[in-house]
Amino acid sequence: MDTNSKFKVQSEHKKIQAKFIHNHGQKPSLIQVTSPMISSTLFHAYPLLLLIDNLLANIMWLSDDKCLTFIYLASVWLTINVFIPNETEVNHILPYAKILRLWIGIISGAFLFLSFMYYIVSLISSLEDTEPPTLDEIVVLLESVLGKLEVLKNELNVWKKLKLSINGVSEKCSNKRLFCRLFLLGTISQIFIMRYISVGAYVRFFIIAGLVYHSTSVQATLRLLWRFTPVRNFYHLGFKSFTTSNWLPNRLNMEQIISLSQEEAITVPLVDVLPRLLQDREGEDHIRILQLLLNEQKDNFDNQDLKILEIEVQENQRKWHRSKNWSTQLLPYERQNFSIEIKDTDGSFIMKSCLSTKELGEEDLPDNWRWINDDWDETDWVYSDSVWKEIGQYSSSECFTRSRRWTRRLFHL
After folding, report:
1. What positions belong to coiled-coil segments (predicted)?
2. Do residues 282 and 303 touch, judged by C-beta distance below 8 A?
């Protein structure tokens, strides 16, 4: 065979030869990027992670066998009755009630203990008979445990919930309001409850309530109750009187807005501003300032300062039920149809209800205050969920609220 034929055969062989690309677009395995010490620790902690995950699944009612979770709940109830007896029990009617309750409590406690030990023994036995878990499986289990713990942490963080404001804004409430909540919820209400029920019933109620909180029935009931507006009002305005005057807050007018927002105004010397106002500004809003100043016949501007203030009003709407139309009717405790953020005495920003932009534009301004813009400038709608958490610029099935901002500038000389 000559050289040309050999070269032709080799070139044809190269054309049909398969070429494999390794690790193209794939992430490296966890075993390659994890140190041996961490891998060994996770491997030895795998049985404990399984135990904790199963315990959390039963507490949060995520187990497939709901009947077994209910049996555990009943056993816990019977067991705690031994350690937390009912002081109001009439012993002369049931003379053997204490003995019966003690016997049932001991049996229930023994059942819980033996069930726990049986699960540990069966878990160890199954791990010995099956293949060792991979590092990816251990990490997935660890993420499951951390996710459940995060849910429980957020639900038990009562302090964070107390510090949230009740006006629909995710800002911290004032110290005065926080003190009122702690005083009423932590002192007055507790004394009132303890006066009519015993300590044992009080403790039992909270233990059982915590164990059944994540059950399907309780969660469905809470969601049904949350649909009622009076329930929401009681949750957010529990320590306020439910009167019409409180539900319809006083709407700020233009004079009040200017008085509360003067700290945000920008003060500049008029001599420094005038050259920039005149330079290539014809037909724009800035030339209006100069025209108004000239109309007042002010010749000497050396010692004059110009105070410029931008008013930003927020328009809010809510969508009710399955209607596609947006409504100006909002919940009493949240932000209203037109609102503005005002700086409180403690430095935090609170949402106050105000007049509509049309009504604010028609009002007479205080002395020496004049509008710069002829009209309000509006932005596009921003869509949010039911608690005003922003989702995006477009409406979807998850959007129940929306808001947009109206801005307009004025000046004071």
Report:
1. none
2. no
**Axis-axis angle for helices 36-44, 135-156 (nearest 10):** 70
Question: What's the token pair of residue 150?
Answer: 């995060």
Q: Are residues 81 and 215 in the same domain?
A: yes
> Is there a domain that residue 179 lies in?
no
Q: Which domain holds residue 313?
A: 249-412
Q: Write the CA distances from 309 to 170, 242, 409, 412, integer angstroms.
A: 25, 37, 6, 8
The whole-model pTM stands at: 0.55
- Same domain for 282 and 380, yes or no, is yes
Q: Is residue 20 part of a domain?
A: no
In a domain, 103, yes or no: yes
Q: What are the structure tokens assigned to 208, written together?
A: 């059982």
The β-bridge partners of 88 are none
List the structure tokens of 259. Answer: 């008085």
Q: How would you classify the pairing of strands 305-318 and 401-412?
A: antiparallel
Q: Which residues contact 345 (CB under 8 A, 6 or more apart)?
A: 174
DSSP state of 64: S
Number of separate domains in the chain: 2
Rounded to the nearest 5 degrees, what angle is found at the Cα of 181, between the Cα atoms of 178 and 187? Answer: 130
- 3-class DSSP state of 371: strand
- Quote the pLDDT of residue 382: 93
- Coil, strand or helix at 351: strand
Cβ(385)–Cβ(401) below 8 Å: yes
| Residue 332 near residue 249 (C-beta atoms within 8 A) | no
Number of helical (H) and strand (E) elements in the chain, helices listed first: 18, 9
Check whether residue 216 and residue 351 sit in a common domain: no
The list of the chain residues with pLDDT below 50 reads 1, 7, 9, 13-24, 90, 166-170, 238-248, 297
In a domain, 164, yes or no: no
Contact between 335 and 316 (Cβ < 8 Å)? yes
